[in-house]
Write a structure and sequence with these properties.
- With 263 residues, this protein is of the alpha+beta class.
- It has one domain.
- It contains seven helices and 19 strands.
- Strands 2-3-18-13-15 form a five-stranded antiparallel β-sheet. It has a five-stranded mixed β-sheet with strand order 8-7-5-4-17, with no helix packed on it.
- A hairpin with a 2-residue loop joins strand 9 and strand 10.
- The two termini are 14 Å apart.
- About 3% of the residues have low confidence.
């Protein structure tokens, strides 16, 4: 069993300028209020258990490695197709960075055509693209360079919210980075209540391919873990569009072909 620790983080404007570069003590993170990730098998059992595929080992294995991550705060907004402008929202649009980050579109006086990362601009192209400010720090209890995490859509996300998750994957065992969802908005009236599944995390590369997510027992992640998250984020900033190749091409740990003899 591969144990994975997680700690909620919130990419608020104030948190970004803190020592940890994120808010690790947001009120929504109080254990009694925070909706913790759960395995997809556990969460969707009632929906699937009466179908013939429920007992299929392949189906159970595929979804058994998957956890559902939930929205912690009611968020809704309306935007217009012609320019991607968010003109109505459940939150103060002057403080939108505490709720959503606009990647392609506009809100208030904020225009992403003026935003650039490296030398690349992100102009509006027919669909509003946003990034959720709610994040999750996830790290393995034991170092494993072969461990990967994949962000995949919750099956009913698009039908419930009108948002399409922009999928991603990265080597969790080699790159400590916060996980948060980026979405392409198809509906011009988006409503995401608290408790809505935002995305699923699927893990692979562990020794026995079995995974268990637990919240970090400390108030904050360990100091060394926080340092690695900050360091990996800095690499992305200093080497834009190059850090991915450096991390992706890092040599994985080799497995002993005779490992079965020692079990």
């Amino acid at each position: 069993m591969n144990k994975l620790f997680y700690h909620p983080s919130y990419q608020t404007l104030a948190g970004t300028h803190s020592e940890d570069q994120t808010d690790l003590n947001h009120p929504l993170h109080i254990p009694e209020y925070y909706i913790k990730p759960v395995s997809y098998i556990e969460y969707a059992k009632k929906e699937h258990k009466d179908h013939s595929y429920w007992k299929c080992p392949a189906w159970q294995h595929y979804w058994g490695n998957t956890y559902v991550v939930f929205n912690q705060l009611d968020i809704s907004f309306k935007w217009q197709k012609k320019d991607g402008l968010i003109y109505e929202s459940s939150f103060d649009r002057h403080k939108h960075l505490d709720y959503i980050h606009i990647q392609e579109g506009t809100i208030g006086t904020y225009n992403t055509s003026e935003f650039s990362q490296g030398n690349k601009s992100y102009a509006y192209k027919d669909y509003l693209v946003i990034q959720w400010a709610q994040s999750l720090m996830v790290w393995p209890q034991k170092q494993n360079k072969n461990l990967w995490v994949e962000m995949v859509p919750f099956p009913t996300l698009h039908h419930q919210t009108g948002m399409e998750l922009i999928t991603a994957e990265f080597p969790l065992g080699r790159w400590y980075r916060s996980i948060n969802g980026a979405y392409r908005c198809w509906s011009e009236d988006v409503n995401v209540p608290r408790g809505t599944p935002l995305y699923c995390l699927r893990f692979r590369g562990g020794k026995d391919n079995l995974y268990k997510m637990e919240r970090s027992p400390s108030i904050k992640p360990p100091k060394e873990v926080r340092r690695l998250f900050r360091l990996n984020h800095a690499v992305k900033s200093w080497l834009p569009f190059k850090s991915w190749n450096l991390i992706k091409d890092d040599v994985e740990e080799k497995k002993c072909p005779f490992n079965f003899l020692f079990k």
